[in-house]
Amino acid sequence: MLQYTGKYWNILTPWIRKSLKRHHGSAFTAQVMRDAKPRYRDLLNRMDDIGARNPMASNVYMSFVFFAVYLAAEGKLTAADLRVTANEAVQAPVMKIMGLFMNLNRPSCMKSMGKMMHQNAEWLEQHPQYKSKSWDFNFDASKHRDGFYYHFTQCPLNNFARREGLLDILPVMCDMDFATAKLMHAKLHREQTLASGGRICDYWYVGDQCRDPK
Fold first, then answer.
1. Distance CA 184, CA 164 (A)
2. Which residues contact 9 (CB under 8 A, 6 or more apart)?
3. Which residues, in sequence order, are CB contacts of 10 under 8 Å at separation 6+?
4. Left (φ > 0), alpha (ψ -120 to 50) or beta: where does 147 sit?
5. Who has the most CB within 10 Å: 9, 72, 143, 172?
6. Distance CA 186, CA 178 (A)
7. CA 110, 115, 119, 121 torsion: positive or negative?
8. Which pTM does this prediction carry?
């Protein structure tokens, strides 16, 4: 069980509602959004406890908003439909604020990102009761000359989606990493994900002005 918070629901649902209305109409949107809220709580109740204060927990809270909307549609939304809505929600003005504070073309911002990810890993070391369920961080500063690289061999969202029969829509959430990278004026290079059957989820971020990154 993961503790409920309405913060991510309140941030995302106005933009999800707007997208659904645009593509599927007002009546459908009203029904889906009404039914999605209790499904969101239910998903959190079934989630492995990774620690509500886990700095990576926001990934679960945000993804579950989209999972809840998909489930509330009861088969009337496809994975492709959800992808459109997710991409439009990420383009919301509130999300674009990220780019004002984090531009990964600046060495100082890339350094700040690396520091934040190492702090996330340190939080897990300080809370070992969550290590078996949470993301595992693997850093390799020698792998690439440019940008910042890390990977996971375990992802609680992947574990949950496989257990709950939601693996068909998990790649939609994985692909949002590319959209958020763009918000940070960056490019994400990725070879594989756990959701697609890979051994790892890899992240290599470089500034979007970096030519021929190595």
1. 32
2. 37, 40, 65
3. none
4. left
5. 172
6. 9
7. positive
8. 0.93
